[in-house]
Fold this protein.
Amino acid sequence: MFLDFYKLREQPFGVTPDPRYLYLSPGHREALASLFYGIETGRGFLSLVAEPGMGKTTLLFQLLQRWKGYIHSAFLFQTQCNSRELIHYLLEDLGLKSDGEDIVRMHSELNDFLYRETKAGRRVVVFIDEAQNLSDAVLETVRLLSDFEAPDKKLLQIILAGQPELSERLSRPGLAQLRQRIAIPARLEALPAGEVVRYIHHRLQVAGYEGPELFSAEALELIAKRSRGIPRLINNLCFNALSLACAMQKRQVDLETVQEAAEELSMGFSVPKPKVSQQVVRTQTLAEGLRSSLKSSYKRIHDNILGRRLLSGTLLLLAIGGMGVLFGTRTRSATAQPAAVSDPKAADSGVAKSPDLPPEQRLVVAVLDKPFADRPQTGTTGGSIESFTYVIQANDTLRDLCMSMLGRYDSNVLNKIRELNPGLKNPNLLEVGQEIRLPLSQAK
């Protein structure tokens, strides 16, 4: 792990939507301000559209953090559902009990809840992530939720977040009523090169880095180019580049390290093939023509099924006509210079990537190259659930822990937690110092 090597307090390029690491580029700042203003003025329907990996969920968590204590929120991730399931998920996330069967009764329970919250002076905001996956019927159900209103205000605010397909869906004639109700449409665009550099520096600073420039200027330029300004790709590329640099004991990530990391991530980067020195004797014109004819004949095999017969005839005729030249050339080349002696060390493919590294560092590279699934895990309990132990701190709630560490809080996550903690009687009553096991990844 490179945290100690580079003196970092924590992982700067993680994959969880931690609001602390949100970099407010001009585009992100504008989108956040638009959504904040929309909630503040009670506009009803808002939308946030961005390419995958642009940080939509992190931005929504930041928005939620700013309104903490002033709104009652529900965060829905399950978008592969029907209308009844959507309402059931909504009630469950709001803390309301429901059997999930009678949709009319669920609407009534939601309506009563909204009136109670409004009288208490609290807003109710529903965040629906990956909304492009909702069917047209469910989107119509979402539209009808906006009918919960008092004479002077909306009782429920809804933010639809999704990929560009969401905009395409909303442009259909059948969804015109929903599109017209979206008062503020926000959008996130890819970061320009200058913002990519500031984004990387921001995350390193949050993670506690205080040393000299960790990435060279050339490395930063290549990261901006290969990531196309998408934060998720920037994180993946920086993480792999830091891992490689640590394995090679480099205090700064240079261009070559980023090139290798980009190639391993299959991000469309290809290293130019090195020029191979060839020690061959010039052949005569007829021999060159023979090789060219053979290559041409071989290519025609792939283009035409009759090529096999054509190749056989061509090989026979060319062999008869050029045998003497080839034998003569080979004889002359054998007498012109001695054969090159092969170096068995150069043929060792296992160290081809890092021939100058001592054996112990080559072992480090080999370990880092192993897939994460092959490495030892923190621990497993409750069957095949991968988990870790967390000690409850002051003001911790199970919902906040799940949202910050797993990115979601729903019945599936709760079932996993109950399975990991058989003695946990009430998940809503956690004591400081209490140990609780949480799943390592999102529950499926």
In short: The chain has four domains: 26-188, 193-264, 285-336, 380-439.
